[in-house]
Amino acid sequence: MKIRHNITVTLGGIISLGLLLTFGLALWPVTIRVDHDWLKPLALLLASALYLGGVGLLFRFLHRITPRTSRWLTWGLWGLFLLIQVWVATAWVAAPRADLYFVHQQALNLLNGSQHWNAYFYTYPNNVNFTLLLSGILQAGRWLVGSDSGVWLNVVQFAWLDVGLLAIWHQLRRHNPARANLFMVLIMTAVPFYAYALNTYSDTYVLPLALLAIAAFRHLQHATTWEQITLRSIILSVLLVAAYLIKANFIVLLIAAVITLWVRPNHSPHPGFTRSLLTLVLLATLVVGGGLAKKSARANGYTTDPNQALPAMSWVAMSWNPATYGQYHLANVTQIRDQPTKAAKQAQAKADLTNYLHTLGPSGIANHLFRKTRLFLANGTFDSFQINHAYDRAPNWYRQHRATSDWFLAIWCQLSYLALILVNLGWGIQQIRRYHLTSAYLLGGLFFIGLTCFHVIFWETEERYALPIFFLLLAGTAAGYRQPLNILRYSERSSWLPLGMALAFTGILGLAAWQNTNLMVHSNSEPVSVVSQNEGHYYQNHRLHLNAGQSLTQPFTAPLPFDQFTVGTGQRLTGKVTLTNAQGKTVWQSTGKRSAMARTIPLQSAGNYQLTVTNQGKRPLALQTAPATYPLLPQAIQQHPHQYLSFEITQRSIAPVLSNGKFWLLFGAMWLSGLLVIDRFYWYRRRI
């Protein structure tokens, strides 16, 4: 027993150190995947303190209301939450791009009776299980809503995420209704939740399984009869294995569950029986689940091809490329893909890894690990603004002001991330001081450490892989928040303390504002995306060939005015580009025999247009296109019903990140919020 206790406390210390490291990294977010400047660390720290103060005031309010009011508030929060989800699900529909394009198209092929699999899935077999799942969801959508699959998928994804959130909410409510309501407010204002609910990919579908598994684990810990132990072991095992089959990096959640079960006590009369039974059932479920997944894939026409699949070593090697932060790198993948056999691919991957480690050396390895850790843990956006590159449907105000909107939302993500980490760090330290860690905290903490080690040390590193950590932090904040009693008691000694705090806060905020004045002068030249058909060509390079004199016409609808276009990669081709409006009038056309496929044109109003490319040379002209049996755009290329030109229509936007008015509005709001928080905490000092 003492050994288990010491192991538990040691693991709690490791988790706390991991959170402390994450907090330090989050003060300097990574900029390689965003189009803007972050606030300076001092401003982020002050803003996160204000966020934390707001959480404290909210927590105090939720504790003071009557049970009847709490019940009504719960219903109101859930109702408001669902209304927001309905609005987002119907107003925004993300366009499937890159991996999502292949998955979505293959799911439709299966739905239409075709069992021919795109070569993409032989290189990336990790998406086969999710594709089969998506095919079933799309089939249900055809029965229920007809052809509007975008909104249907959004509704399914929001509903599925809600199932996982409901499981955590229910666990919190059983112990403290105020904490359950606090969790609702936190998740309702969590930007990554909405971003990923619009993202039809495995990240969205695996997350609720992890949340359900954590809730099921708590139920297993409290099981007392062999019937309860058996049933709950089976349910937990199915959830864990299902998560692993959809996303392989969730193997760390299986390991975390087994470790937590063996080091933490349970309520069973014979604790060893519970531990042994779950371990055996989990192993059996892994074997059976893996076999069923392979059988289902074969039944739908998929067979593995080892000579095409990327070996595991290739992902490890790619993550150690000194030129990157450990993220996906097309050149690395292409080099290994070009090898003809499995053995050749493995040899190339091993050679790449050996070369990278030799190039890095001991100090370089340490620095590269730090870079990978920063990419994985430093950004509280969790890639929310890059996962959906384009939208088939979005409000025009968002399209026009996307850069500014995303900046404010990203800052909100970052400051809330810092505050959530701080609360969870404090909760963990408090548990260590009491020599008692809750099973849920230990399970979530081991999952956090395991996921970080998996991606930072071994695998590809991207922000989105850390998404489960965000939801664990939300749940941990709701479960572990404590009012700062000791700090508040000091204020009883002097009524001048709040005034001093207000003056100090004003001075520090003024310094933070001065540090961030570059936001008003630094130009953000990112154009506003008006129409985008940029299906990723990282795997396929499909082209439509035009013979001499032939033309290709792509209709499109511009919801905003525009003055730039790019066809393909924007290179210069022997051809003429013509833009006509809905009345058939030519509003712009290129001159000369060779034309650049990236051009700035006179500003055009919103409306329906046609973009025509004509081959003026004697040789065939190849243009990048994307084949699809679902609408990548409202209309396909004329005379080619399932082909879509690769192009982008944009509007120039050269302006500072923030205007003077928005800048001072931001810091003015922070100043007023800070004074309000200080005033309210002073008022509460004798009431807490």
TrEMBL record:
Keywords noted in UniProt: Membrane, Transmembrane, Transmembrane helix
- Domain of life, source organism: Bacteria
Ranges annotated as spanning the membrane: 7-30, 42-63, 75-95, 151-169, 181-198, 204-221, 233-263, 275-293, 407-427, 439-458, 465-483, 495-514, 663-683
Name of this chain's protein:
Glycosyltransferase RgtA/B/C/D-like domain-containing protein
